[in-house]
Amino acid sequence: MKKKILPLLLSVGIASTLAIPYAGYAASATEKIDQQLSQLKKKKQEVQQKADDAQNQMSKVQTEKDQTTKDMNMLIAQVNEASKKLTELNNQIDKVSDDLEENGKQLDEAEARVETRDQMLKSRLRLMYMNGFVSYMDVLMSATNFSDFLNRLEALKSIVNQDKEILVANQKDRDTVEQKKKETEQELENVKALYAEADKVRMDLQSKEKEKEVKIASLSKQEKVLEDISEESEREVTQIARQEAALQEKKRAASNAKSPFTYSGGKLGYPLAVQAPITSDFVNRINPVTGRPENHKGIDLGAPKGTEIRAAENGTVIYASWMNGYGNYIILNHGNGLWTAYGHIMNDGIYVKVGDTVKRGQRIAGVGSTGQSTGYHLHFEVRVNEVPVDPKPYLR
């Protein structure tokens, strides 16, 4: 019996001796992976800070751009108002020009009348000069009888009155036309001055409008640069998440932990506690916040604030933080290159952390409207080997 026990003890001792180094190796590998995870976490924080700075700057640029656009719209309205004023002034100028033309005709006619009257007066004077001056008294005294005297007196009165009427009419025509001419010319000068002033206003407004357009173009360029930074940050964060996922898998393998991945195809679980309408599909669209074309990488499910967001499948959390555009954001790794992502989560609404293992249907977050969002909804993505695909076939 003793002979049998001894080999057994030796075998156990050898096995124990071999197990100790292996356990040490496993611990060493786990510690190394933890160090790498820690380094990745630090790098991710740096990338996230860079993205946050870019987002803050972008928000400032967008605010400035919005204000500049409002200013420009106001200027355009002022330009339009000035154009209306110019049109009215042009109409006034046309009317004054017509009046001047009419006044010119009246002046010509009046001058013609004056000339005609002057010719009549001159003819009489010339006749008197040629025949000798005859006084009114001589004409009256030459009457042959009283009746002839009265006829001659009446004729003289008529001549005198006619002369007076001619002189008065001439003076009235001259005064009226001259006054009207002065008034019209003054009115034309006033309108011309107003036209010049309005034209100056229009040129000034157009100059400001051009200045605003240049400023908006500059802001748009700056915004594009910041967007590129944000997109690059998103790529870096995704890359780090992939590296973290790979390290977590190595860590599980080193510690002989059971794999959390069970998905082998088929339908995923619905990502909300209630059925919700699709408010934006997996399509190219105009971003409702930025107003620019974009490829919408998932589907939007409209739901009230705080609605329970659930894991679509068993997996691990490889990202649970803020991401530009998405707001509060979670990425789950389900193995075999399949990821699901959940965006616009409400503030303080992320209920898991990186490294956590989650079960299908588990509550992981609450619906919100953070990031580039115009209302409460869940932005849900399915990614295969990190490439976004249409989530709808996975939910049917």
UniProtKB/TrEMBL annotation:
An example Gene Ontology molecular-function term: hydrolase activity
- Which stretches of sequence are listed as region Disordered? 47-67
Keyword Chaperone recorded: no
UniProt keyword Hydrolase, yes or no? yes
Residue intervals of the M23ase beta-sheet core domain: 295-391
Source domain of life is Bacteria
Signal peptide start-end: 1-19
Q: Give the residues annotated as coiled coil.
A: 167-250
Where does the record place the Peptidoglycan hydrolase PcsB coiled-coil domain? 108-180
Q: Which UniProt keywords apply?
A: Coiled coil, Hydrolase, Signal
* Cross-referenced InterPro entries: Cell_wall_metabolism_enzyme (IPR050570), Dup_hybrid_motif (IPR011055), M23ase_b-sheet_dom (IPR016047), PcsB_CC (IPR057309)
- Pfam families assigned to the protein according to its UniProt record, in alphabetical order: CC_PcsB, Peptidase_M23
Its recorded name reads Murein hydrolase activator EnvC family protein
Q: Which organism is it from?
A: Paenibacillus aestuarii
